[in-house]
Amino acid sequence: MRRASRTPPSWAAWLLALCVVVTPALAFFQFFQQHEKGSPRTESAPETPVCHDYVCPVSGTCVSQAIDCPCPTPSDTKCLYGDWYYCQAGTSCRFA
């Protein structure tokens, strides 16, 4: 008894090979075309002012020295302690 071999026609094999090669290539080029057209990196973003002195870590305010940074809440009082400061709730400075 003779086995019948099932081989796809040559056009089907070529079509399959074409799909396997062309599909990733098209996706690759389409990916880069999209990024060139509307990439957020290439669009002009509003410029943020540059601080040349000191940026306060909590408020992000630009001041000339760290001691000039505001307290986190307006009701706090800035109290000096040596050559630094701390923010105290209320109006009087007490070192605990």
From TrEMBL:
Q: Where is the signal peptide?
A: 1-27
UniProt keywords, alphabetically: Signal
Name of the protein: Long chronological lifespan protein 2
In which organism is this protein found?
Answer: Caulochytrium protostelioides
